Amino acid sequence: MWFCSKHSYILLKCSYVFYKHSGFALITKKFITLTSPTMKIIMNSLKSIYPVSKSENLEKLTAFEQAYFNIPNDFREYLINYNVAKPRKTYYKDRVEFDLNYLFGFSKNAYEDFLETIKTYTNRTDKNLFPIGSVDGGDLLCMDKNTQEIYYWNHEINDQGLEGNNTPATKISANLDEFLESLTISSEPTEYEIKRAIQNAVVTTTPKGVEIRNEQRKKKGLRPLTIEEWHAKLNGIYDPDTVNPNQST
Q1: What is the SS3 assignment for 103?
Q2: To bridge 205 with a disulfide, which of 79, 164, 186, 209 should be the other Cys (CB 3.0-4.6 Å)?
Q3: Taking every annotated instance into account, which residue ranges of this chain make up the domain Knr4/Smi1-like (predicted)?
Q4: What confidence score (pLDDT) does residue 151 get?
Q5: Which of 157, 182, 207 is the last residue of a domain?
Q6: In 10 A of CB 206, how many CB atoms?
Q7: Between 118 and 21, residue with greater pLDDT
Q8: Stretch 168-188: mean pLDDT
Q9: Which of 12, 6, 53 minimizes the C-alpha distance to 29?
Q10: Which residue, 119, 124, 116, is CA-closest to 159?
Q11: What is the enclosing helix (H) or strand (E) of 143?
């Protein structure tokens, strides 16, 4: 990527061009997100799980804010533009270690719905926090209503609805954008990925994806898997780390 501040041009290697004058105009792929008047390039793209209607999302968001509380700008913009979404990279390993399943939105599925999740976890998270995402293993990604800071909520030690639990959630990022940029590609499929694969579709990977995941496995002292073994692992057919494929059924 090249940047020329004098003329405010950016030329991306993927042959897309961005030009700034008083505002912004952009021909782009999904991995770039902008907010005016400040430029913001988000390399960890978000992919909406369902078709998005910005007008409907805005209407639902307005109704929510009138009934409950004002959503911080970062998550508000996300809800309007993406609704329920999953980032391309999902693995966080800085202060704690976890895989993000998806960010909540407005959905008929209660487990994905922003409002239903807030109702479920009322008085179970820290006072100023509200849930914004599902984390593998039953945990939550949360945001502070006042500061927009991002927190990791562990259901085993941070659930204040359970007797004896008073440990506060762990702060992991200053804001949503910073959190998304800190994510990497996991070396293992999440429980959520396996569940969706079994229920809805077949998960596929590419040689490059295999290379990246195997690099993560190498750091853990695990052997590299073939693309066929990754197909089996991602789709829950068998676990090549524990099962001989010749013995799988």
Answers
A1: strand
A2: 209
A3: 51-182
A4: 98
A5: 182
A6: 10
A7: 118
A8: 90
A9: 12
A10: 124
A11: strand 139-144
